[in-house]
Design goal:
By secondary structure, the protein is of the alpha+beta class. The chain has 2 domains: about 5-80, Arc Repressor Mutant, subunit A (Orthogonal Bundle), CATH 1.10.10.10; about 85-280, Alpha-Beta Plaits (2-Layer Sandwich), CATH 3.30.70. Helix content is about 40%, strand content about 20%. The protein contains 9 helices and 13 strands. It has helices spanning about 5-15, 20-25, 30-40, 45-55, 120-130, 175-195, 225-230, 265-280, 290-330, and strands at about 60-65, 65-70, 85, 100-110, 135, 145-150, 150-155, 160-165, 170, 210-220, 235-240, 245-250, 255-260. The strands form 2 sheets. Strands 3, 4, 5, 6, 7, 8, 9, 10, 11, 12 and 13 form an 11-stranded antiparallel beta sheet that branches. The chain has a two-stranded antiparallel ribbon with strand order 1-2. α2 (about 20-25) crosses α4 and α3 packs across α4. The N and C termini lie far apart (about 115 Å).
């Protein structure tokens, strides 16, 4: 019978500190497949936290599937850092603070090298049939195949592979959410290479050319979204010269202020989070309306100050003329009619 994790580890799992719990198991000599079974979790979820530990240089791979600890890992209970990936957006809702970032709706494009052997439309279909991988032909110029790999929709085409990620990544900021999603997809790409018996075929000069082509970053339980959504309303959509970049949405009962532009979603979301935090520090007394009202008041004060400065300048100019005139009088022996 498989030994279940201790109560302290089970508590750590409930507290979302899975990185530390998994690290402890690696120190004890366990491995990802066993950890997934012991914790009653999917291998994908365990792989995600293994990637997190590797990213911070806490562990390294000793052999295929086996990891060793490189240094001690002492979590800081006073500073919570939540990083969770889940297929169910509202799964951990109660555990998150307002304005936690939810990265989701990711789409990735992997650029392929030009000389992959048998990577034609007919060649791919032949390989897929041989490996008994179900696929649906894509109606694209040059052809393509849609497959489901590790519960993700993947499009195989002549020049690229498109991966659709339905997971949600909860983190402190948008750039970290995007980074965690990229790490997870990188592991998926490597696994896909092995599954298609095309190991190292997808890299260009040793690098995987992954590009984010779609991304959404939302501030959950956001104060503005809660106010807007109190009466049931349609989505609030905001656009600029680059297109739609912001919306307020409550489709998952998350009250989200969501940044959705494919190019600027990360800086937009992190910027909006800073704005909301700055408002929160004032208990929301300083709002956009407050700033605008005070701006006009300040402008009026500046105008009065400017008028005063102009009057002062005129006085100074007149004083300067009088001083010059007096100097000439003195130099000419007191003649008041001196020029």
């Amino acid at each position: 019978m498989t030994e279940k994790p201790s109560k302290s580890i089970q508590k750590s799992i409930r507290g979302l500190n899975l990185d530390f719990s998994i690290f402890q198991q690696i120190v004890k000599g366990s491995w990802p497949a066993k950890i997934a079974k012991d914790f009653d979790m999917s291998p994908t979820r365990i792989d995600y936290h293994i990637s997190s530990l590797k990213e911070r240089n806490l562990i390294e791979m000793k052999s295929q599937g086996n990891w060793i600890a490189l240094k001690n890992y002492e979590p800081k209970p006073s500073k919570k850092s939540i990083r969770v990936a889940t297929e169910q957006p509202a799964e951990y809702l109660d555990a998150f603070d307002p304005d936690t970032i939810r990265g989701h709706g990711y789409q990735f494009k992997l650029k392929l090298p030009k000389d992959i052997r048998n990577w034609t439309n007919e060649g791919r279909e032949k390989v897929l049939r041989k490996l008994k991988i179900s696929y649906i032909p894509l109606k694209l110029f040059g052809g393509g195949q849609r497959i489901i790999f590790r519960k993700k929709k993947v499009h195989l085409t002549n020049k690229s592979i498109i991966i659709y990620d339905r997971a949600s990544y909860y983190t402190e900021n948008a750039i970290r959410a995007q980074g965690l999603a990229l790490i997870k997809i990188l592991y998926l790409v490597k696994a896909l290479e092995q599954r298609l018996q095309a190991r190292n075929y997808f890299s260009i000069k040793g690098k995987y050319m992954l590009k984010v082509t779609r991304q959404h970053h939302a501030l959950i339980k956001n104060a503005l979204a809660i106010i807007y959504n109190k009466p049931v309303r349609k989505k609030l959509e905001v656009s600029d010269e680059k297109g739609q970049w912001l919306l307020i949405d409550n489709s998952w009962n998350l009250n989200e202020l969501e940044c959705i532009h494919p190019e600027t979603s990360v800086p937009d979301a992190d910027g909006m989070r800073k704005v909301m935090n700055s408002f929160k520090k004032t208990d929301f007394h300083i709002t956009s309306e407050y700033i605008i009202e005070n701006f006009w008041e300040l402008q009026g004060m500046m105008k009065k100050s400017s008028e005063t400065q102009m009057m002062t300048g005129q006085v100074m100019q007149q004083m300067e003329k009088n001083l010059i005139h007096l100097t000439k009088i003195v130099m000419k022996g007191g003649d008041k009619n001196a020029d």
